[in-house]
Specification:
With about 250 residues, the chain is of the alpha/beta class. The protein contains six helices and seven strands, in the order E-H-E-H-E-H-E-H-E-H-E-H-E. It has a seven-stranded parallel beta sheet, sandwiched between helices. The protein is globular, with a radius of gyration of 17 Å. Bound molecules: NADP nicotinamide-adenine-dinucleotide phosphate.
């Protein structure tokens, strides 16, 4: 395996030999990121509730550069085993893509008890699970030399759009933004760089039929997000992109 500290042309980081964890790689944005990074030449560890679905979504691949593992955001043990098994199999971890996430509609005038259940579920999947993976991966990312973290946040991490938004989802995505900045401080001295990627509407099942979302024709494709993650992973330590909003529509500060 080549050393990740080797630099490609123009000081960009080369994919070869770098091991990337991707959560929620079974479909949607996570699956698109996995396909793109595999094509780039990265070594991948795909975490999914159904690892077979992640392998299937990836399609034809080099088995020497891919492992799949069971990862359930609501099961702390599955996160511990995924990270430990990845380090054991490949000997290093160079990047973590915190992608797995859910959206449940929560409003002030909804069903009170049901809304609190949905709030807790989103909090656990969208915030606690990425926090847990960060804690588990950071020691490995620090050792790697140029560790990278990309947290898939949302434009909902940057503002409260309007009353059609899910209050609970917006709260959790704002928390992902703070988590990203905290991780940036935690890893900075060891060359770890962190990006909160903040896309607007992306055409996946997450926002199917969602009122207030950009209509389907105007949505980004998952491959656009994958392309952006691929780009971010090549940037050297002195080109930190802490937040990257990507919007489908015109808004005053996004
Ligand atoms: N689509 C958008 O417009 C948009 C915009 C901005 C940000 N995002 C964010 O992008 C990320 C990916 O969303 P997506 O649009 O690709 O959604 P998606 O198509 O619904 O896929 C969600 C992914 O998260 C996984 N997941 C859900 N609950 C999980 C759990 N308990 N444990 C492990 N994995 C779990 C799913 O796995 P299963 O197959 O097992 O369910 C699936 O792989 C999310 O964080 C989302 O908030 C999406």
């Amino acid at each position: 395996m080549s050393d990740a500290r080797e630099l490609a042309d123009d000081d960009l980081l080369a994919p070869q030999g770098r091991v990337v964890l991707i959560s929620g790689a079974s479909r949607g944005i996570g699956a698109a990121i996995a396909r793109r990074l595999h094509a780039d030449g990265y070594t991948l560890s795909l975490g999914a509730r159904d690892p077979t679905a992640a392998a299937k979504a990836l399609g034809a691949h080099d088995p020497a550069r891919v492992m799949t593992a069971r990862f359930d955001a609501l099961d702390a043990g599955s996160a511990r085993r995924w990270v430990a098994d990845t380090a054991a199999r490949f000997g290093r971890i160079d990047a973590l893509i915190n992608n797995a996430g859910i959206l449940r509609m929560v409003r002030f005038d909804g069903d009170g008890d049901g809304d609190e259940v949905a709030m807790n579920e989103m909090w656990n999947v969208n915030v606690i699970a990425p926090f847990r993976l960060l804690r588990l991966a950071l020691p490995h990312l620090r050792k790697a030399g140029h560790g990278r973290i990309v947290n898939i946040a949302s434009t909902d991490a940057k503002r409260f759009r309007d009353s059609t938004s899910s209050i609970g989802y917006v709260i959790t995505k704002h928390a992902v933004l703070v988590l990203s900045h905290a991780a940036k401080f935690a890893g900075w001295d060891d060359g770890v760089r962190v990006t909160a990627l903040c896309p607007g509407a992306v055409e996946t099942e997450l926002i199917a039929g969602l009122a207030g979302a950009t209509p389907p024709a105007g949505r980004m494709k998952p491959s656009t997000i994958a392309h952006t993650v691929s780009f971010l992973l090549t940037l050297p330590d002195n080109a930190s992109v802490a937040e990257l909003p990507m919007n489908t529509r015109l808004e005053s500060t996004l």
